[in-house]
Amino acid sequence: MATWTIDPTHSEITFKVRHLMISTVKGNFGTFEASLEGDEGNNFADAKVSFSADTASISTGLEQRDGHLKSAEFFASEEFPKLTFVSTGVETTGDKTFKLHGDLTIRDITKPVILDVEYHGTMGDFYGNTKAGFDIKGSISRAEFGLSWNAVTEAGGVVVSDEVKLELDIQMTKN
Could you tell me which of 169, 89, 167 has the C-alpha nearest to residue 131? Predict the structure, then answer.
């Protein structure tokens, strides 16, 4: 069993949410950390994963919107500075694909989630480090985590969808 840590310079933690139900707003978390205990010899089918992101590091490319997302109506970043994920199990679905089961905590609410994982293999880098690459996707209901702010347009449509799509491009470094 080996321990791996995330390489933040080669990883992205992004999300997408529908705006006015006709377009998509994308964002990311700039400050995060993760560790994985597992053995690439079995494609990480036994992996134990923990992850956290600083909620104040959220960025959507618009300062006013980012400020709103950090406010009490969404992440309440001052009171809840981190969102966390801790795995509870891995289900093998193919040669290099898995379902990663775990508990996601946003604010003070913890809910089980299942994420789709694609393992892209391992490779040595120029410095003698062993790296492993993963794409991780899933979706959550933001209302289930207390991120329920919304508004209704004059035409009766909602401003922000409940579904948030998660997309993580991850590179881990073997310790």
Answer: 169
Strands 82-92 and 97-106: antiparallel
- The residue ranges of every structural domain in the chain are 2-174
Prediction pTM value: 0.92
- Please, what's the b/e burial string for 21-56 (b: 16 or more CB within 10 A of its CB; e: otherwise)? eeeebebbbeebebebebebeebbeebbbebbbbbb
pLDDT tens-digit readout, 49-106: 999 999 999 999 999 989 999 999 899 999 999 999 999 999 999 999 999 999 999 9
Q: Specify the pLDDT at position 43.
A: 75
pLDDT category of residue 174 using cuts at 50, 70 and 90: very high
Which helix (H) or strand (E) element contains residue 68?
helix 63-70
Q: Which CATH class is domain 2-174?
A: mainly beta
What is the residue whose two structure tokens read 């809910």?
Answer: 111
Burial of residue 83 (number of CB atoms within 10 Å: 0-12, 13-18, 19+): buried
User: Counting beta carbons within 10 angstroms of the beta carbon of residue 172, is it exposed (0 to 12), middle (13 to 18) or buried (19 or more)?
Assistant: buried
Q: Is the dihedral of CA 63, 68, 74, 77 positive or negative?
A: positive
